[in-house]
Amino acid sequence: MMKTAARLNKQRDLERHTRNHHMIVHGAIMEGVFPFTASMDGEAIKALLIVLSRLPGAEGRAEKAHKPGIVHKEIILPAHAPPEFADCSTLWNSVEAIEKSSDAQLAREIEVALPVELSPAAQLALVRVFVKDDFVDARMCAEFAIHDKDDGNPHACILLTIRPLKSDGRLGPKCRKVYDLDSQGNRIPDGKGGWKNH
Questions:
Q1: Cα separation of 179 and 33, whole Å?
Q2: 10 Å Cβ neighbour count for 80?
Q3: How confident is the model over 67-111, as pLDDT tens digits?
């Protein structure tokens, strides 16, 4: 009897751990904050998060809860982007709405270090040029934030749409990698465990 109870407790703990890990990976809230979410599936948790985000004052609290050290936030869009994409909520909700799979990758994030020798204005100009030339000109929508906590590590976090923006202002299909091939038609290793591509 005692061994059976211990085995059941161990199984429940493993299930709870697996469920918590799944919730963390998918950006959901933890059972410790809302215990009733333990019995909910992923879609129900998403619906709960949407409802919570629309409560009166939620937007203001979210703005206040941003990371310390953010000195600048900006969205840069291709010229043909709908004007409403200048609002980050609208942009990322549109990106999420087009996906069919609940575990689809919505964006890619790039973090770049900024030279401490540059002034904040020069750092901002450098990030703007980099984002525009390398991503926005390739029809991606980009949101970036420059972080500087006066710890000698100024950097920019850049969030990019995976789907390019079509000329009609709608998000297009995800782009596939084109691998570089050698003379025998085999993929060329990139030396980092992957394959060279363009």
A1: 45
A2: 11
A3: 567 889 999 999 888 899 898 888 888 888 888 877 778 888 889
Q: Where in the chain is the domain with CATH 3.30.930.30?
A: 69-161
This prediction's pTM:
0.57
Q: What percent of the chain has pLDDT over 90?
A: 16
Is the domain spanning 69-161 CATH 3.20.20.70? The answer is no
- DSSP annotation of 62 reads H
Whole-Å CA distances, 129 to 88, 109, 137:
20, 17, 10
Determine contact, residues 160/141, Cβ cutoff 8 Å: yes
> How far are the Cα atoms of 31, 180, 197 from residue 184, in angstroms, in the given order?
54, 11, 16
- Helix (H) / strand (E) containing 23: helix 2-25
d(CA 24, CA 18): 10
Q: Which amino acid is at 154?
A: P
